[in-house]
Amino acid sequence: MSVDSKQPSGKMWGGRFSETTAASVEAFSASIHYDARLYRHDIMGSKAHARMLARQGLISLDESEAIVRGLTEIEGEIERGEFVFKPELEDIHMNIEKALTDRIGPAGAKLHTARSRNDQVNLDFRLYLRDEADVLDHLLGEVQRSFTRRARKYLGTIMPGYTHLQRAQPVLVSHHLLAYVEMFQRDRDRLTGCRQRINIMPLGAAAMAGTGLPIDRQSVAEELGFAAITANSMDTTGDRDFALELLFCLNLVQLHLSRLAEELVLWSTKEFEFIRIGDRYCTGSSIMPQKKNPDIPELIRGKTGRVTGALMGLLMTVKGLPLTYNRDLQEDKEPVFDALDTVKASLAITAELLDNTEFNVDRLRSATVGGFMTATDLADYLVRRNMPFRQAHGVVGRIVALCQERDCELVDLTLAELQGFSELIEADIFAVLSVEGSVNSRVSAGGTAGVRVAEALEKAEQFLGIPR
Ligand code: ARG
């Protein structure tokens, strides 16, 4: 006979209740349909807790071994899809504890000694998110590798660089691609920092005030691989900063993916024709036979909305909560799970998408003609000959106006015509006005010159472990 069936409510917490819980309340408050995914981490945490209870003499060694064995069996059942989750048991913690007690008897009923679901759920969530942070880091590395392989393949190819989506200055395609490697590196660094704050052990805060039983929190932290234990039991049970911070990290990842997605959508239009996305990664139209649509980048861009919604939602859930635990906090998991699923799927498909995207080298090169993209180079040329930059800016502006009037390019003007604007201009100006000359002149650290980009590429390849 199970421990709780003696109670009219049928609940593990039901001692003081004389009526059973309303079915509507059970349905409204259950979280098992989404927190079941914490099962491995719940079991991992419970095993460490049971072992500590035995070390501290709070339960016997036999009892702790029975608990650990029972939990291992339950884990196997869940993994094999044999475990029956019961909504009336609310959440993953109760479902597992009840199954354990049914299985091993009174020892199971000792597992919750010196523990509350308030610190237990915090522990489970931290353990789960710590693993997810590692998965994200791996996926981000894969995306960086895809970018880096493209950057190697198209090294030397020139394209227009844009500001305000107007042609600005010629750049190497590889420089553009490596910009994303930087963004995703910052995302990885940010996640590393977030992981450090996730990786603090909350168990022992109990309901919120700590416990009078002689527990050893430090040893639980060590067994579970935590770097430290939380310092204040009240802060611990009410804290979801680690989840919010992870959501923010996820938001920046998805934001970066969305900016890329927007570029892929633009670049695959007839108007740009900069890239060709492989057929396997595009879709057709049900009415227009000629269409080939970039639905995958569009979806990545679109999913940014729900990831942002998850962050906003949890911020609002936590806002205004008095210390410490409140049931509102149960609303923390769904947005985080959804954001994680969305960002992981987006990262995985982005890596594939990039591997199946080719650049139209000729089209990129021809897009650098027209638009006076080397005008800044002409100004810099004058600066090197000691003209103040503001004055040079004005001179070049007037030269551009003349070209526009004549519908010609800067290089189409004669030396004499150019010298009419400034006697500082000499025959070597034409090398400066060429697109290749412009790109290769930008040797400043972090610039687009071939030498700098080759260095950056090698650095990325080395860091990401890409064999040359
Ligand atoms: N399912 C709950 C949650 O996710 C677990 C903690 C419940 N604690 C409580 N005192 N009702 O937050």
What CATH architecture of the largest domain do you see?
Up-down Bundle
**What would you call the shape?**
elongated
- Find the CATH topology of the largest domain: Fumarase C, Chain A, domain 2
**Share of β-strand residues:** under 5%
Structural class: mainly alpha
Helix content: 55-70%
Unreliable spans are none
Intertermini distance: 66 Å
Name the average pLDDT: 95
Number of helices: 19
- Oligomer classification: single chain
The total beta strand count reads 6
**Which hetero compounds are present in the coordinates?**
arginine
CATH H-level homologous superfamily name of the largest domain: Fumarase/aspartase (Central domain)
Q: What number of structural domains do the residues give? A: 3
Rg, Cα atoms, Å: 31 Å
The neighbouring-strand order within the major sheet is: 1-2
CATH class category label of the largest domain = Mainly Alpha
> How would you sum up the major sheet?
2 strands, antiparallel
Q: Would you list the SSEs in sequence order as H and E?
A: HHHHHHEEHEHEHHEHHEHHHHHHH
Task: Explain the overall architecture.
The chain folds into three domains: 23-110, Orthogonal Bundle (Fumarase C, Chain B, domain 1); 118-366, Fumarase C, Chain A, domain 2; 375-464, Orthogonal Bundle (Ribonucleotide Reductase Protein R1, domain 1), CATH 1.10.40.30. It contains 19 helices and six strands. It has helices spanning 23-29, 32-35, 39-55, 61-79, 92-104, 117-153, 173-198, 217-223, 233-238, 241-267, 295-318, 333-355, 361-366, 375-384, 389-406, 415-419, 429-433, 435-441, 450-464, and strands at residues 158-163, 166-172, 200-201, 228-229, 275-277, 357-359. The strands form three sheets. It has a two-stranded antiparallel ribbon. A two-stranded parallel sheet has the order 3-4. The longest helix has 37 residues, at 117-153. The model has no long low-confidence stretch (mean pLDDT 95). The structure holds arginine (ARG). Arginine is lined by residues 31, 35, 90-91, 117-118, 121, 325, 327, 329-330.
